[in-house]
Amino acid sequence: MNTKINWNQGWEFRKKDFEDTVWDRVDLPHTWNGTDGQDGGDDYYRGTGCYRKTLSGKELPECDAVYLEFEGVNSTGTLFVNGREVKKHEGGYSTWRADITEFLTKEDNLILVEADNAPNDHVYPQRADFTFYGGIYRNVSLICADRTRFDLDDLGGPGIKVTALPAGEDAEVTIEVSLTGCRGDEEIIYEIFSGERTVARLTQSARKRRAEMRIPKVRLWNGRKDPYLYCLRARFMREETELDRREISFGCRSFSIDPEKGFLLNGKPYPLHGVSRHQDRPQKGNAISREDHEEDMKLICELGANTIRLAHYQHDPYFYDLCDREGMILWAEIPYISQHLPNGKDNTIQQMKEMIVQNYHHPSIAVWGLSNEITMGSAADEDLLENHRILNDLAHRLDPTRLTAEAVVTMCSMDDEYVHIPDAVAYNHYYGWYGGEIHAYGEFMDEFHRKYPQKPIGLSEYGCEALNWHSSDPVQGDYTEEYQAWYHEQVIRQLFSRPFIWCTYVWNMFDFGADARSEGGEDGINHKGLVTFDRKYRKDAFYAYKAWLSEEPFVHICGKRYVDRVEKMTKITVYSNQPEVELFANGVSLGKQAGKEHFFYFTVPNEGETRLKAAAGTCTDESLIRKTESFQEVYRMKEKGDVINWFEITAPEGFFSVNDRFGEIMKSRKGARVIKFALVKAMIKNKIRSKKEKHPKGKGKKMDLNSPEMQQFLGGMSVKRLISMAATMGPQITFTKEDVLKINRRLNRIKKQKN
Length: 755
What we know:
Distance between the termini: 81 Å
Number of strands: 44
Shape: globular
Number of helices: 13
Mean pLDDT: 92
Strand order of the largest sheet: 27-28-29-30-31-32-33-34
Radius of gyration: 28 Å
């Protein structure tokens, strides 16, 4: 009988590049990038970390084989036992095992693991907007096994595959097993349980690697409404002796994606509205606990989401279990992201195989994601297309029951061949934040649906950043909580009213580490989350979604962190899922509002100190505002380096400035000349610096900057916003304060054309 022992305690660690340093005692999970991967500095260590531990042969139970199981070593893990290399695994987010039996002695055995997250040209991911935390950041287990067992060498999977599909009032369950050491005289006893009750039982020869069973009057796994799970117990027997056992939870459900009706669960429309999730935490990185996973799930459930996109890699096995139990529909994907690597095809295939084999039994998973924004750096060439065809065919071959999807970068043409390879497609759009106009979401979806009525279209990412900055007149790019809330109000109205959109995923549920970032006044973090990085504060936009998606009665007054205000009359926004809201100021009713589709707007006198109270049914919420004579600078984003104050940007009546939209300026011949000259000058100035940058090389055509998609993306940004974004996306184009002011002075001489 197999024994699995948690082996997280009592390791030693040091960075390989610093061999003169002492070994630190650590317990797993562990990462060395918990600080330097989140601070935005130049200290982010991408290299090799060494972990060692002693395994005493005398302490091992009697067994035929000894395995080490690693649930996550980022990004390449190499295992040595007593100085001999046992296995090398490339890919930091999936489970892998190594048979160490023949390498062990009866005395003490030195176990050494090298975890390497250094850049290379063939292991994904290499370029992405999140931190690649190095380390052994998930559980490690010691497995002592019988020579006759369910397979432990099947791509990190359980050695058993369960397919359960509704068939009328019943369900047909197909079980496939992979075995090791089978002599031929063994049997497998299969039992399916509903709670403590046995609903199906079958005994057959182990030589038959496939079993078919039936659950009468099946209770379906029905998403958030009723995520009902059955349990399969498979016992590998020789006469009366149990050699090995597997227990797997599974659910019976069916799903499809209709180009007109959207996502269907068990034959009924089930609109997917949810969030994307990165798993990291402050200081911990990806080395998080079960309690951390549970807190994340609790917050997502509070929001009212019914789906999660597990971005951009295979997540912890425990989180898939939580999704099964809570009824979340999942988009699961491999980290084939941002940049196609000509030498990385085999790695994408390996990671896809591991993800599907290890997670096949989870009823929560609906689609396998092929890639994310893979044409970010260049257009799709034949090598990239072939890679996607291989992955798409592989996913269907390994799992004929599920669909495939991919997340496409906004500038990619809807006519591009690679967009149409998977069963369903979704776009990552940031209209109203990086570029484009906020109203473009609905327009794009309508145009795609009109042009390709048989292709399911969804939205895989959208969002904008918000920190603890505030304004009564929020604008694109100001990083205020107020702009983020307004932005999501506008997008919700467009997306939730179109039933053909098969999925929507906010980017992101939580702020997350992205060490290369320098935005919003705090380096090293992507602040697009609806909840702060530490999970302590739900931003106002969180409650906008809760108002639309949650059935738990509530009311929320926005702007609680924005107390001191200068205006005499101020706007107060209230979110609620109740039909009517009444707002009180110092106990005096300012009126009731009803039928506002969850968003309620009040104009409130701002005199002295005003205590606000919102009432909706039995729910109440309170906040405070206070009149001040001047704007509180604590609410304004603190620019780093050269600060350009708002009053330095001159804007004569009827003339252009850097605050005008790029698209409008480029329609003017003189305006276009000013912008092009400034860009060429900046590129020449930074040419030497650009050449020094080293990134994994990719091949393929460059992205067409003159394409309609790119022009729409860029056109909605102000020139000032575009300049600031250029500085955050790499060293190729940077502008000083004087550069920006010089561009502004030149634009001030160009008269706007009258409509």
